[in-house]
Amino acid sequence: MADVAEAAGVSGQTVSRVANGRTNVDPATRDRVLEAMERLGYRPNSAARALRSGRFRSIGVIMFSLSSYGNSRTLDAVASVAAASGYSITLITVESATQSDVSGAFVRLREHNVDGVVILIETHRLGETELALPMGLPVVVVDSSADYPYPVVDTDQAQGARLAVEHLLALGHETVHHVSGPRESFSAERRRDGFLETLAARGRTPGRVEVGDWTADSGYRIGRGLAADPGVTAVFAANDQMALGVIRALHEAGRRVPHEVSVIGFDDMPDAANYWPPLTTVRQHFERVGEHAVRALIAEIESDELPVDRVLVPTELVVRQSTAAR
Fold first, then answer.
1. DSSP labels, 199-240
2. Residues 156, 313: contact at Cβ < 8 Å?
3. Is residue 118 within 8 Å of 61, Cβ to Cβ?
């Protein structure tokens, strides 16, 4: 910094202001300092600045699984918004959402000097009272019904399920059958509850509720049973992949989609428009979930305040050719 100051003919304080992006520097002086930095190969020491400020502009992310479509899309959004805000991310995956695994992940992230943590663990374990999140770091929880004194961000799963069921009932179907996600998933539970509540509010008897594991294979397995039941005319699958398996099973059984059976999914994956027939589905806005999570965390990091609130990001219905009037 002293070399840059001498080369540019300014004080060390002026070099510091330019290096830190301050605006109280004359434009011509700023250009002179930047030229001297470039010529001398000077780069601000981010580690030294972090030690002075106590902030490292780094966000930790704890995830249970990278295999699910929703988790990977949300992580991508978190990483993009963090980068645009000048933060790097450190990702820690845990084998299970137990106290020891989550506590261990926090310890590892502290070793990486992160300023705050985003947690993406959708299993019920995170909602149990005995699972305590270590204190001392700003935290935002994504996709959880847990009652924590931290900001929580999620898709409005119940609203999405309501949109799906109401669409099928409006087409003239007497009831709807449901292919649910895993029992341990908060998202699956909220979609299943929304399905049941919507039918109850309309005075309809719920159809069969079958539990899958988010995969197309599980949808196919469940779909074979649904296809064999002539009373099944409408199916709401809790994600697009299971809907794909259901449609395959219906095709193989000679049940025409949507003329005999309407099928609707959830997520709006990029391939959903290319299923046969193109899939009617509920679109989740993962990028908005990631953006809300990172913005809330950065606000907590930079203001040292705890904005305890819950943000539910709305879904929208995307109607294609896999659903039709009865």
1. HHHTT-----EEE--SSHHHHHHHHHHHHT-TT--EEEESSH
2. yes
3. yes
Which residue in this structure is represented by tokens 């428009």?
Answer: 273
Q: Residues 194, 202: contact at Cβ < 8 Å? A: no
Band of pLDDT at residue 44, cut at 50, 70 and 90: low
E strands in 110-159: 116-120, 139-142, 152-155
CA distances from 161 to 72, 188, 275 (A): 21, 10, 21
Burial of 321 (0-12, 13-18, 19+ CB in 10 A): middle
Q: Which domains does the chain have, with CATH numbers?
A: 2-44 (1.10.260.40), 56-153+286-312 (3.40.50.2300), 157-284 (3.40.50.2300)
- 124 DSSP assignment: G
In this structure, the number of other CB atoms found within 10 A of the CB of residue 111 comes to: 9
pLDDT tens string 2-28: 898 999 999 988 987 887 667 778 889
Q: What is the pLDDT of residue 216?
A: 97
Summarised one tens digit per residue, pLDDT across range 64-115 is: 877 778 888 899 999 999 998 889 999 998 877 677 788 888 888 888 889 9
Helix, strand, or coil here: 285?
A: coil
Q: How is residue 46 written in tokens? A: 């981010």
Structure tokens at 198: 């919507």
126 closest CA partner among 108, 140, 112: 140
